[in-house]
Amino acid sequence: MNIVLLNPEIHVNTGNIGRTCVLTNTKLHLIKPLGFELGDKKIKRAGLDYWKDVQLFVWESLEDFWSKNIEGNDSAKIYMATTKTKQKYTDVKFQKDDYIMFGPESRGIPEDFLNAHKEKNITIPMLPIGRSLNLSNAVAIILYEALKQVNFEFE
């Protein structure tokens, strides 16, 4: 599996997500700009001693990531987590090499990008009393559903 964080802003979330990725053999893709420095002690503290083992890929832009991973690759599937769709994350059939993208904590994936890929938008159902779940929680929820669907094949 591949987790993609578009412009993550909070080092603690990214550190927690990195730890989850290590323990599930999931690749972590970070798309710049980042709201923190990767060498910052805070991100390493959040990821504990797992951070050194993260399969980390850092991309200069969304276009850079897209052109090198998705565009022209017929087998690459990407899903975009958003609160702006009705399609639940449990409604899709994940494959072991899929990409699951999450936007910045304060604003999510840009709407124009979501609109260009509506069939790939997924959401976690929740009451409408809050904006969204914490990013690291949302990643864990969707990633574990995807892993469940591929029988927890971590290799």
Automatic annotation (TrEMBL):
Protein family membership: Belongs to the class IV-like SAM-binding methyltransferase superfamily. RNA methyltransferase TrmH family. TrmL subfamily.
List of residues binding S-adenosyl-L-methionine: 103, 124, 132
Enzyme class: transferase
GO term, biological process aspect, one: wobble position ribose methylation
Superkingdom classification of source: Bacteria
Originating organism: Leptotrichia rugosa
Entry keywords, A to Z: Cytoplasm, Methyltransferase, S-adenosyl-L-methionine, Transferase, tRNA processing
GO CC terms, sorted: cytoplasm
Function: Could methylate the ribose at the nucleotide 34 wobble position in tRNA.
Pfam families given in the database record: SpoU_methylase
Reaction catalysed by this enzyme: 5-carboxymethylaminomethyluridine(34) in tRNA(Leu) + S-adenosyl-L-methionine = 5-carboxymethylaminomethyl-2'-O-methyluridine(34) in tRNA(Leu) + S-adenosyl-L-homocysteine + H(+); cytidine(34) in tRNA + S-adenosyl-L-methionine = 2'-O-methylcytidine(34) in tRNA + S-adenosyl-L-homocysteine + H(+)
Subcellular location(s) per record: Cytoplasm
Catalytic activity, EC: 2.1.1.207
Domain annotation tRNA/rRNA methyltransferase SpoU type: ranges: 2-144
InterPro entries, per database record: Alpha/beta_knot_MTases, SpoU_MeTrfase, TrmL, tRNA_m1G_MTases_N
Listed GO MF terms: identical protein binding; RNA binding; S-adenosylmethionine-dependent methyltransferase activity; tRNA methyltransferase activity
Designated name of the protein: Putative tRNA (cytidine(34)-2'-O)-methyltransferase
